[in-house]
Structures are given as structure tokens and as C-alpha cells.
Known about the structure:
This protein is an all-alpha fold. The chain has helices spanning 8-25, 36-39, 42-45, 50-66, 77-94, 107-171. It has a domain at 8-92. Helix content is 70%, strand content 0%. The chain is elongated, with a radius of gyration of 36 Å.
Amino acid sequence: MNTPGNDRDAREWAAQERARRAAATNPPAPRGSGFSRDFFPAGERSLASPQEAGDAAYRHVADALRRPPPVELPPDFAARVARIAELQTATAVTKSSRLKPLPRSSAFERRLTGALVAVFALGTAAAALVYGARVMAQLEALAGVQGLQWLALLAGCLGLSWSLGWLRRQAGHDGIARPG
């Protein structure tokens, strides 16, 4: 922002615009490797006034922005990128549980899982008996009786929706192709 008595930004902007226009009207011949010695040759580094030096510096920046960067890609760059993309896609697809069926659980694993679910259900029931009255009182104080009824209705709807989705997946009506 320009303030009275301080127009340094305006001078900088004007120098940048002069350099941009000069670079547009007199494009430089392509040269160099992109290093600073190519952008600032020794003859232009020692100009008479600071303004000329600033204009020359901005001119070199404008020239550099008009040229593509001096990057030499290997001849097989596109093939390498395609190969990397194929490998990443292949590993992402093979890790997908939708394409590969899960291995069958052994009878021991199924019994152990059932036992753990039963223990979890018993623990939940015990916690509800011990702490349920206090939790319900706090929820009732927080949401009111009608709010508590709405929360129960929401929990019931979510549980019904999730259980119906689980039943649909168990029946094989989820649209996933299974080997068989």
C-alpha cells in the first residue's frame, strides 16, 4: 500500500512493468542452463545507477519466466510414469476386500468370536445395570424427556438401518461380485 512520502512499492512495480514490456517486445535468444550466472551476465551486473540495475534484474526475471525451464527428462520418462501408475493401481486393486474373498475362518475362530461377542454383550448389560440410572438421569437433565425420546428413536432407526444393511450383505444382495 502506498503511503505519502513512501512510494518505493510504486517504483518497484513500475520497474517490473518496464522489464516485462521490454522482455515482451525484445525476446531474448534462448541460452544457458538456468543458473544465476546465465541470468545475470557480468556486463549487466555493473550498471551505472541502481534503477538500471534493478530494471536489468527484473528484465532477466521476466526473460526467465518466458522460457520453459531447462529440464531434460529421460527419454523413457512417460513409460516410467505409466509403469509406476500401473503398479500403484494393481497393488491398490489387489488390496481391496471387495475383489478378493476373505479366507474362511476355522471353527475355532468362529467359536472364539462368538464367545467374545457374548462376553462383550454381558459386560454391556452389566454396565447398563450399574450405571444406567445415573446416565439416564444425566441425559434427561441435558436433553429433557422429549429429547431423550427423540434420541431413543434416532438410535432405533440407526440400529434398524445398519442391521438391515448387514442382513442384505449376508444374503448376497449387495451388488458385489463373488467368485463361485
